[in-house]
Amino acid sequence: MYNETKGGNTMWNIITLATTQWYFGIWLGVFILALIIEASDPQLISIWFAGGALIAFILSLFPSVGIWTQVIVFTLSSGILLILSFIFFRKSFLNSKKISTNVDALVDEEVILLTDANKDIYG
């Protein structure tokens, strides 16, 4: 008969081992996924989550740091990175010059019509 309280491979040891040593893989996966998403789109979408996952990954290498501490640090560091990037890039976001394209670029321009134009015939 199997005794769960004695022996080297007790159920508790297996559960403890499983819950303390694989969190780094989750954070590494989140970091890589955030970098892939960031690389696939030219806009800043997930770079903050990559930074937060990197910090949580480093914390997960210490066995004394629990998963909830890692999640809280991930959330706070991602939020702080988001706020800092907004503060840093605020002037470039708000003061960016609008570039007119297509028909919008022709507003207030003078043209020479080669044929007559009215509301039924486009010029």
Brief digest:
This protein is mainly α and 123 residues long. The chain has 4 helices and no strands.
User: What percent of residues adopt helix (DSSP H or I)?
Assistant: 55-70%
User: Which class do the helix and strand fractions yield?
Assistant: mainly alpha
Order of helices and strands: HHHH
The total domain count is 1
- Main sheet? none
Instruction: Name the overall outline.
Output: elongated
Oligomeric status:
single chain
Task: Compute the number of helices.
Answer: 4
The Cα radius of gyration reads 28 Å
> What is the residue-mean pLDDT, rounded to a whole number?
78
How many E strands?
Answer: 0
User: Could you name the ranges where pLDDT drops below 50 across 5 or more consecutive residues?
Assistant: 1-5
Give the CA-CA distance, first to last residue: 93 Å
